[in-house]
Amino acid sequence: MGRAVLVALGTGAVISSVAALGIGAAVTSAPRTLSRAQYEAAMADIDALRPALRARCEALTGPDEELCRAQTAAAEMVRVAALEESFRRTPEAAKETQRARIEARYQVARAKCAALGGSQRDSCMISVHATKGRSLLEAQAPYLLRQPE
After folding, report:
1. What are the angstrom distances between the C-alpha of 120 and each of 60, 63, 66, 123, 143?
2. Which of 53, 61, 84, 87 is the Cys-Cys partner for 39 at CB 3.0 to 4.6 Å?
3. What does each of the 149 residues of the chain score in pLDDT, given as a tens digit?
4. Is 6 within the bounds of a domain?
5. Burial class (CB in 10 A: 0-12, 13-18, 19+), 83
């Protein structure tokens, strides 16, 4: 039994290392620069995709529908911010993309909390709000260090 545990732990370590490398490569890859035509075409694609995504959410009911709407809006918010960052290529656009990701996570988490009831919902909302605040502070810290005094 000891050998099986070691093999399982080793396999888990290898898998998580490979996943971390893949995530790291995806996160650190530089966004490509877009021309105005590419930017406008990508925005048109996002706009064209919106009705189909909304229709998918409308097929659901109750909390599932609200969660689907929140996830759809959050994903769109992040896509638009990332597209804007690729087009503008400014530090402000990078900050806005980071804020959009934080806000998207916040909106989805709030929708998940809404499905709960009573004190569980209250606790969940407090936790989600605190997490958003910490995330915003952590995201702002590197920029504060770079500003000249």
Report:
1. 24, 15, 18, 5, 36
2. 87
3. 455 544 444 444 444 444 444 444 444 444 567 888 999 999 999 999 999 999 999 998 888 999 999 999 999 999 999 999 999 999 999 999 999 999 999 999 999 998 888 899 999 999 999 999 999 999 887 666 655 55
4. no
5. buried
Contact criterion met (CB below 8 Å) for 43 and 80: yes
Token pair for residue 26?
């995806």
- Number of domains into which the chain is organized: 1
In a domain, 127, yes or no: yes
Which two tokens mark 98? 């980071």
**Domain containing 111: what range?**
32-146
Q: Which two tokens stand for residue 69?
A: 């709407």
Structure tokens at 125: 């909302």
CA–CA–CA angle 20, 23, 29 (5° rounding): 135
What are the phi and psi torsion angles at 115 (to 5°)? -75, -20
